[in-house]
Amino acid sequence: MTHQLVLSLISGVFIAGAAAYVGTLMLSRKMAVVAGPLGHLALPGAALGLIYGFNLSLGAFPFVLLGILVIWRLEIKTKLQMEALTAIVFATGVAAAFLFLPLDKAEAALIGDISHVGIYATLAAVILCSAASLAIWRTYSKIMLINIQEDLARTEGLNVKLYNLIYLLSIAIIVALGVDLVGGLMTAALVAIPAAAARNVSRNLFQYELASGTFGVISAIIGIVAAVFTGLPAGPLVILMSAVIFSLTIPAAKAWT
Amino acid sequence: MAEVLLYVRNLSVTMDRSPVLSGLNFSVTEGEFLTILGPNGSGKTVLIKCLLGLLPYQGSVDWHKKPRIGYLPQGLNQMSVRDMPLTVMDFFTLKKRKRDEAFTYLSLVGLPASILEKKAGHLSGGQFQRMLIAWVLVSRPNVLFLDEPTTAVDVAGGETIFSLLNDIWRQQNLTIFNVTHDLNIVYAYSTHVLCLSRLGHCCYGIPKEVLTPDVLKDMYASDVKFYTHSGLSAG
User: What string of pLDDT tens digits covers the 257 residues of chain A?
Assistant: First the structure.
């Protein structure tokens, strides 16, 4: 196994595993679709990375964070549906990106470039994904209670604003890192598909979290290794592998529901 | 003699520049089963959200001693969690409660241990509400807020739930704030009633004393026909 493949696998496993784990909460809050527009909003940042030669995720992170804050504030101010707001954010992100995205180098920003990830980016992915996953793990039951009913969570004494902030920051980190793995166009799939597949086969919350993380990791490993053998880009292969796993879980969903 | 638990003075709430509640005054004694009665849009849910500290208001809400609150919010039913792979046990785990503790409280509301492994979203409306009551009681509250707890339940199931709540109220010396449209519930279970109308009028007291045909007419802004448990009819 080459040194580069090891780095790609380590990055991919951590990013996909963390994305799939946080995806279980996003799916239960019907927020999985939000990761898509946030990924698109990462495109201007990724474009800056391409122009000035720094890591795509590093460029993406402030834009994703800004996107989350904009959606959060707009939802409070306008009372518009999350879907409408994410559509606005999506359009803004894509329009801004294509104003100055160097199109000859756009592929990495659009579909990811994990096959060329460096040692420092890998290290950053490991540390940030571990931190985000740990934060989510420590607060999982509280965020799930907020997802079920916010007022109920408040009367149970939870600081809803604090937990929402931790949750949104974790999403911002993972979506920004997801740009490296699958690009700005497919980050929603990275969080939504493993969680949806896990929901099909899970009987309880523990199985749901475990299955989602496992499906994310398996998709990343097979997708990245398949990219080496086929010469195709790893990002789309990771997502297609997730889709294959999801389709395999459909019979279990029918039996369960 | 029971102590006063809550004083509400001059409580007013404005939403979208329209008054929802204005100048409300009442006090609640420990151990009361208070029903908050009124038509849609009269501010019942807004009032309990103010008492719970979930909404801003003018005026004062003073708890005599810090209550341990349990809350059954409006609209939370089995359909709300249908898409989540949450078992009944998972619900209790969200509160870090152990299996035997969950079972104790499920037994109290008449649910079997086998229900712990069932998906919460697959319970019937009545089972879900009873599960939720057990979930709220496991924190050992001394004050319960119930916001239309039988909305997603059929009539027989609703009566079972109120009968159960009445038993728990007596056994555990709870103070209950219950929101409903249902006059039968007021007469059957409540020690006190607080009625709200869209016109801003209100009344407070013992149901049979304060719920006169004129008060009901004013509250619902129309003629109301009702039957008390003693068979009295008015309209």
Answer: 688 999 999 999 999 999 999 999 988 776 766 777 777 778 888 888 878 877 778 888 888 888 888 877 787 777 777 667 777 877 887 787 777 777 776 777 777 778 888 898 899 999 999 999 999 999 999 999 998 888 899 998 899 888 888 888 898 889 888 888 888 778 888 999 999 999 999 989 999 999 999 999 999 999 999 999 999 999 999 999 999 999 999 988 865 55
Model-level ipTM above the cut of 0.90: no
Among B54, B85, B94, whose Cβ lies nearest the Cβ of A151? Answer: B54
Q: Which of A145, A156, A204 sits opposite B87 (nearest CB)?
A: A204
Sheet containing strand B143-147, strands side by side:
B69-72, B143-147, B175-180, B33-37, B192-196, B202-205
Residues of A in contact with B45 (CB under 8 A): none
Distance CA B57, CA B51 (A): 10
Distance set, CA B33 to CA A218, B162, B183 (Å): 56, 11, 14
Chain A residue numbers with beta carbons less than 8 Å from the beta carbon of B95 are: 141, 156
| Interface probe, candidates A155, A160, A206, chain B, greatest B C-beta count within 10 A | A155
B83 to A28: CB separation less than 8 angstroms, yes or no = yes
For chain B, which domains are there?
Answer: 1-67+142-153+171-235 (3.40.50.300)
Kindly list the distances between the CA atom of residue A5 and the CA atoms of A52, A120, A231, A242, B179, in Å, as whole numbers in the listed order.
25, 15, 13, 20, 62
Domain that holds residue A29: 3-188
Tokens matching residue B205: 């007291």
H/E run at residue B184: helix B183-189
**Residue A199 domain-assigned (yes or no):** no
